[in-house]
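so my prof wants the structure for this chain in the tokens format not the other one, which i didnt know existed until like an hour ago. anyway here's the sequence
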Amino acid sequence: MPDSSHHPFSPTRGDYRDPLTLIDWPRLEAPGAWLPQSALSLHGLPEFAAAGDEVKRRLSRYEFINVMYCGIWLESIFLQRVSRLLQPDMSRTENAHLLQELREETGHSLMFLRAIDAAGVELPQGSWRAPRAAAILGRYAPAGSAVFWLAMLIGENVSDSLNRDLCESAVDVNPAVRQICMLHVADEARHISHARVMLAAALSSSGAARRALLSSAARVLLWQMASVFYYPPADFYALAGLPRETDWRASALRNPARRRFVAQQLVPTVQLLQSFGLNVRES
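here's what i got, hopefully its the right format
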């Protein structure tokens, strides 16, 4: 069984904990939801309420798989870009910090891949794609620049909000899924803190014009991240067993209950960006 002595929100680093050895993997095979009903993109729609319990259970797995794909995508960008910052003459403290983050992000991706395999659902090749603008900014913005750390901070904070919600209140989901979220939150608390420091340093000499440009970039990044994180690919709905003749993703995007849920989940990220003097509210 996983070690439960470590508090999931502890900010201390301690020894490295390989998530593959800490998750109670057999529990993922148990029947039950991977997300609470209130966190599903179709929650609140009468046509979804009429769907069978098995379809709802399968959709909860697909929607959490979507969350994990987002994590794998963000971590792949982080691993590629941050590894290039490593230099033989850099301070040992910074070198150790970056290597620790790379190790933890690699562990998260391996954890997600194993969980996806354990989901027992069909996932055709190419059924998930990263948001275009966010992918371009993440991969090509100069490493260490304000735009790069802005993209990393938004991506990490958006996912962290949902993970914390699942850790704290989602008692009716698969226990192993909550373990995955807890381990992710514990490590991401340090990564988010580091990204905040790096973004603050990059913005320290920015004038009003540059902050206005960064505010525009932040709005695009935040919307694209929210759209891919909270609204799964259209194919996922059909794969879950919902009728193919309905555009369920379009229904989710119009769903008032989902829009309220997403807006509430984004509040911490919006407030964080505003603390940097970035205007991310739509005019």
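also thought this was worth mentioning. Residues 1-12 have pLDDT under 50 and may be disordered.
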